[in-house]
Amino acid sequence: MYSFDYVRPSGISEAASAMGEDDRFLAGGQTLLPTLKLRLAQADKLVDLGAIADLKGISVSGSEITIGAMTRHADVASSADVKSALPALAHLASGIGDPQVRNRGTIGGSIANNDPAADYPAALVGLGATVHTNKRSIAAEDFFVDLFETALEEGELITKVTFPIPEKAGYAKFPNPASRFALTGVFVAKTASGVRVAVTGAGPCVFRQKEMEAALTSKFSADAVANIKTDPAALNADIHASAEYRANLVSVMAARAVKAAG
Hints:
It contains 12 helices and 14 strands. The chain is an alpha+beta fold and about 260 residues long. Among the domains are: about 1-55, Uridine Diphospho-n-acetylenolpyruvylglucosamine Reductase, domain 2 (2-Layer Sandwich), CATH 3.30.43.10; about 170-260, Enolase-like, domain 1, CATH 3.30.390.50. The strands form 4 sheets. The chain has a 5-stranded antiparallel β-sheet. β6 (about 130-135) and β7 form a beta hairpin. The radius of gyration is 18 Å and the shape is globular. The chain starts with a strand and ends with a helix.
């Protein structure tokens, strides 16, 4: 690990002003700290967000759930409010990594990293969530840009995420048995404005499966998506699964997500 300075601000504005050109925000540290340790990344300074109370917490207001960026996966999974209003999101959070990861990792850190196999991007895009920063609000579909790339600008800090509460929703993933990352995960949501199907793990970045959305709009049933094929041409292929295997998993996981949604 290369040497760096360390600061622990107590407020959002203090954290933003502490950031320099080659500095990094530290949320749960589940990705950043290992990459620093292995010298795969370097920072002049780490700005630890752990002491900022305004970045933590879960609230339900009307038709939305708001989750602070520094809220841990374990807190989302165990939240009575989330379980009541949006159980699919609690279920998703409960399957991230292992207990150690869930008790350190945060929703803001996860989406800022935008790992192609992360779970939360599917929920954000599937639900049509909004990412709020210290500068602006960004629709989830505009936030996730490409492999490990987001719309965040240099020094921009995620403060919270708002999720519309759907009529029904479900999430299913085929996890890597070692890491619990999604080889393929599908989030399905039925809302007043239509059905959304978001896929993670299969491609370089989360994406919507529009053909499945159309089929589920006509008939919200697992049978409606079970035989819809996803083109493997743009999907990931690695030692864990081929692109063709992941394409098949999209159909299987989509059907399971619809069943989970009830």
